[in-house]
UniProtKB/TrEMBL annotation:
The lineage of its organism: Eukaryota, Metazoa, Chordata, Craniata, Vertebrata. Residues 42-158 form the Sarcoglycan alpha/epsilon second domain. The gene is Sgca. This is SGCA protein. GO terms for cellular component: sarcoglycan complex. It comes from the Eukaryota.
Amino acid sequence: KGWHLQGCPLSLQVLAYNRRTYATVSQHLVITVIPAPGGEPPYQGEFLVGNRNVEELLPEAAREMFLQGLSGVWERGDLQVINITSALDRGGRVPLPIEGRKEGVYVKVGSHSPFSPCLESAVSLQSRFRCSLGQQPLASCYDTFAPHFSIRWCNLTLLQVWPNPTMPGLVWGSGVLEEDGDFQPPTEVPPQDLLPGFLVTLLVPLVVAALLCLLLGHLMCCRREGV
């Protein structure tokens, strides 16, 4: 993790472990980050696949199959996978080792084309209300993900990302002061009288110490038995 510049190589250390044998292996990857040819897709949707683990969607063939099923729902062909995240990283529970249950995977997909009416109806207020009742949301199209991918439609999220305006870069000077005379500070600080503060700082501890010494001497000398 950390910031990086576009076009500069970024070194990452990936540590993986085997779920069954718990054997670990590490590998260093050098990644060069370059901007996408068409820019960041402004229309992005995140789908929760309930019958897959994250490692099952990492291969290119599985991602192409997912995009093929999504193209029938989105009704667009310029789809690309932006991110794949395990549901465990989003607060999901570890599934029980029975009936072949899976962890679940969040897949974020982007496109330069607007959302289809099917996706917009799935995130409408009426659909959210049906999800709160434990029912399936409204969908005006056929689920082309089946039977390979089980989509949790109540967890569908649609985002519309607008490009950030480019800020002008910093202009570095030569580092040499121009010949315009002596440097003049922007403001002048008026002279201050530091004597009162010095006396308060010095006299207050001395007075307190003297009082403590008098109190301690009174207790030790004047409060003894027989005196």
